[in-house]
Structure formats: structure tokens, C-alpha cells
Amino acid sequence: MVTGSCILIFTLFPPNYLFNGQFDANFLHFGLILSLFGTVIPPLLFAYGLPKTGFSLGGILSSAELPVATCMSYFILHESVSLVQWIGVLLILGTVIWLNAAKSSAH
Questions:
Q1: Cα-based distances in Å from 90 to 13, 24, 95
Q2: How many angstroms separate the CA atoms of 98 and 78, rounded?
Q3: pLDDT tens, per residue, the chain with 107 residues
Q4: Nearest Cα to 31, choosing from 15, 48, 8, 20?
Q5: Strand, coil or helix: 82
Q6: Among 64, 60, 56, which residue's Cα sits nearest to residue 105?
Q7: Which residues, including other chains, have CB under 8 Å from residue 99's CB and lie 6 or more apart?
Q8: CB 73 within 8 A of CB 81
Q9: Is the distance from CB of 42 to CB of 65 less than 8 angstroms?
Q10: What is residue 91's predicted lDDT score, i.e. its pLDDT?
Q11: CA separation for the pair 86, 101 (Å, rounded)
């Protein structure tokens, strides 16, 4: 997933700074830290913990990332989040909760 995302992003936004002399060693430190904590550790920990928590709770936990990311983009990055985006977040969360509630009531 990360490799495919990287190819897509580099296609849409070519990394010209790598070749025009604007690349600084500080970017490398931030890039390594962000990649480690953003794309390497979370999937490993999720894959390790999923058998212990169960797939239903794993689905809920993975969908909980979306409202947290939306809130953080609003509060920390001061990005605008529209009502349509919040409705989408609520629809996704509601669907995951509804499907898991339907499974647990069937047992």
C-alpha cells in the first residue's frame, strides 16, 4: 500500500526538490521519523494485535482513525472540514458499528 501510494504521489507531485539542490539533511530526519511512526509501526502493531482483539473490534478500531485524523487536521493544522466530510465520517462509523452490532445480535 505504501509503495503504491508513493508512486501515485510522485506521479502527481514530482519530487523536484531531490534534484534541484533544495533538499536538506533536515528533511531526511523528519522523513525517517514520520515514515517510522506513520507507515511502519502502526500496520505492524495492528497486525500483531488483531488476532488478540478479534476482527469485530479491529474493524471498529481501524475506523476510529478517520474521525481522529479529521479532528487533528481541523484543530492542529487548521484545515477546513466541511459538513459533508463530517457526514461521511459519521456514515462510515455508523456502518461499522451497525454491522458489528448485527453480527453480535445474531450470535
A1: 31, 41, 8
A2: 31
A3: 778 888 999 999 888 877 777 777 777 778 888 888 888 888 888 888 888 888 777 777 777 788 888 988 899 889 999 999 999 999 988 888 888 777 767 66
A4: 15
A5: coil
A6: 56
A7: 59
A8: yes
A9: no
A10: 92
A11: 22
Cα–Cα distances in angstroms (integers) from residue 16 to residues 10, 53, 94, in the given order: 10, 44, 42
Nine-digit cell string for 40 = 511502519
Provide the H-helix boundaries in 13-107. 25-35, 41-53, 55-63, 65-75, 83-106
Contacts 24+ apart (CB under 8 A), 4-9: none
pLDDT at 43: 83
Scanning the structure block, which residue is given the C-alpha cell 461521511? 88
pLDDT attached to residue 83:
94
What cell was used for 64?
A: 476510529
Grid cell in block for residue 91 = 456514515
The C-alpha angle with vertex 81 and arms to 15 and 99, in degrees rounded to 5, equals 100
